Amino acid sequence: MITVGDTVLQWDDPLVIAGLIGAAVLLLMIVLLITVARSAGRAARMAQPMMMQMGQLNQTVQNLGTGQAQLTGGLESLSKSQSMTIQTMEVRLAEVQHKMAERLHENAMRSARSLSDLQERMNDTLHGSSEKTTKSLTQLQERLATIDRAQTNIEKLSGDVLSLQDILSNKQTRGAFGEIQLNDIVSKALPSDSYSFQTTLSNGRRADCLINLPNPPGPIVIDAKFPLEAYEAYVAADNKDAQARALTALGQAVRVHIKKISESYQIEGETADGALMFLPSEAVYAELHARLPHIIREGFAARVWIVSPTTCMATLNTMRSILKDSRMREQAGEIRKALRHLHRDVEIIGEKAGKLETHLRQAGEDVAGVLTAATRASKRADRLDNFDFEELAPDVTNVVPLDHPKG
């Protein structure tokens, strides 16, 4: 590629090739002239060959001129073809530009419609999202209000729990708490005349609850006290050694309490040969059965049965059945006497029914006789209504009076 001013020439351009050939020819002629000038001395000797060479060179130059002319014609034809190609390309480019403009216009219109639809959908979506957001915020506010109320209740409950802890921390108040729970369970399970609370026994001990069961087994005591301090120490233990020591202390405390109940509430001839130790907590009951089963067996041996609120209710329901059976046995004599009277009343009813049947049968026979007489009287009345008394006048004496019907 050759740049001359603002003109750029390509090496494969025919005009450039022709110009280069011409320049080469001129350069060759100059070289030859220089050679001839330098060889002037030898020119005379070599004139004839030089003339021949000049003739050949002239012929060559003519041939080059002819070729240049042909090349010029070819270049002109090529230029015309190039012009036609350029015109054709311009026409096609114009068509392509027109089609591109149309397609761009269609794409612009399609994009505008798509954008409009998208904007409508976005508006609908935003409107729906706004409604959902408003609804969600409203629900969130309601839930926050519920949470606030729950928080208030939790704070109140925390205060109540703290109060309960204060109550349970005191041995006397804890005993009262157990007694209240026991009273509630017993009052729901048994009749009001079958139990009593805070009853003083002959040995001066006061029973939390005394169930008046019949002999056997006799009245049975339920004790509502429990050594909770030992259990709390076991729960608060933070390592295995401390837990083992606290568990041993808990077993010892329960063992002492079982012995106290056995000695205080099992009085021969006054109470049953056994008693109940009430635990106001299912957790303590489960822990004793899981960790201290030998203590439970010792309680069985001492005839002191440990019960929780659930097992106490089941035990009281069994006692209710025992009371019901006992009262039914007490009323068995009255029931038998009432049955004898009932049997006599049934016999009297049978006798009255037999007499009534006889009277009814007689009344039925009387009614049947009356109906038969009424039928005969009706028939005779019909005959009398149809009689001709003049024809029957001589036989009037044969007429049977109505007041004395036959058979």
Automatic annotation (TrEMBL):
<dbReference type="GO" id="GO:0006310">
    <property type="term" value="P:DNA recombination"/>
</dbReference>
<keyword id="KW-0233">DNA recombination</keyword>
<keyword id="KW-0175">Coiled coil</keyword>
<feature type="transmembrane region" description="Helical">
    <location>
        <begin position="15"/>
        <end position="36"/>
    </location>
</feature>
<keyword id="KW-1133">Transmembrane helix</keyword>
<keyword id="KW-0472">Membrane</keyword>
<dbReference type="InterPro" id="IPR003798">
    <property type="entry name" value="DNA_recombination_RmuC"/>
</dbReference>
<keyword id="KW-0812">Transmembrane</keyword>
<dbReference type="Pfam" id="PF02646">
    <property type="entry name" value="RmuC"/>
</dbReference>
<comment type="function">
    <text>Involved in DNA recombination.</text>
</comment>
<protein>
    <recommendedName>
        <fullName>DNA recombination protein RmuC homolog</fullName>
    </recommendedName>
</protein>
<comment type="similarity">
    <text>Belongs to the RmuC family.</text>
</comment>
